[in-house]
Design brief:
Blueprint (H helix, E strand, L loop, with lengths): L6 H4 L3 H4 L13 E5 L2 H13 L5 E11 L9 E7 L4 E3 H6 L3 E7 L4 H13 L3 E7 L6 H11 L5 E4 L5 H8 L3
Parallel strand pairs: 1-2, 1-5, 5-6, 6-7
Antiparallel strand pairs: 2-3, 3-4
Length: about 170
Amino acid sequence: MQLGLSESARVTTKEESRYRINYPNSCPRKSRVIALDQRGTAALRRLAQEVDLPTAHLLSFVGATSVNDNLKILAVDAVLEDLTGRTFSLSEEIGEADIVVMVATAGGAADAAEIIGNACFVRSKMTTGLIVNAARARSDELHRTLTAMRPFAAMLVISDGEEHIGEMLSALRA
């Protein structure tokens, strides 16, 4: 042991490096990032051009549909669409996901948040909500979206802009 070194300095020495694990401590999550409204979809399109998210499936909420036979507890299912226009079933997408991130703008698609949130709750999927461009919204619009998302989101982030979407997805290992 060398004298005069702080604990932080000591653990970075060559002698201590033999104890380091040289591989990631966790696997990336299979993420579903779902825009609840048109402005959320536009934000995801911009994000897809700027950031590489290899395990995240970026989707948009299209509308509610009748329930499928695999998820009898849920009153409705939903149609989702990826950025290329292909459609998917909400129940199938969240069945394969480790985490679901809902992206909305204040005042947008409160019904979509309830449908997706309920589907995630039934399947015990971790959910996060991101409300973007909140500074431009009226307080009643923001309140409506918050009220719809709050019961279902383990973490709910309100942002004045879109810059936090990529950072949040990175922090969630999406």
